[in-house]
Amino acid sequence: MQDITIGAFGSTLLWIVSICGGIGVLYKLLRDAIKKMLEEEFKSLNNKIDTVDKKIDNVDKETCKNFLVRFLADIERGEFIAEAEKQRFWEEYEHYIKSGGNSYVKEWVDKIKKEGKL
């Protein structure tokens, strides 16, 4: 312990810090290379998933619109509508509006509300 000088201690400490820094740089380079490689490998899969997601959103919106149109037609025909079905209508209508469905359905709802049927 007495034979260790400040210079030797400093050199050892510098060596340890250099090794840690080198390992950190190597880790970052490997991580970035693997990330880039995986992004390229899964690019077509991600594109397909995006396409499927858009189609699912479209089917959801159209299904919602079909329910709303049928419900509004039932109201205009004067058919009995249960309270639970009315609540479901408002849930679907809100979902439809939030999903970007702003078409003749909104105008139809406004018309029926003015008539006091809804």
Quick summary:
The chain has four helices and no strands. The protein has 118 residues and is an all-alpha fold.
What does this structure look like?
The protein is mostly helical and 118 residues long. It folds into two domains: 41 residues; 77 residues, no CATH class. α2 packs across α3 and α2 runs parallel beside α4. It starts with 5 loop residues before the first helix and ends with a helix.
Biggest sheet overview: none
**Total count of helical runs of at least 4 residues:** 4
Structural class designation = mainly alpha
Mean pLDDT over the residues: 90
How much helicity do the residues have? Answer: over 70%
The stretches of 5 or more residues where confidence is low (pLDDT under 50) are none
Number of strands: 0
Radius of gyration: 32 Å
Task: Tell me the fraction of residues in β-strands, as a range.
Answer: under 5%
| Tertiary shape | rod-shaped
Terminal Cα span: 91 Å
How many domains would you count in the coordinates? 2
| SSE series | HHHH
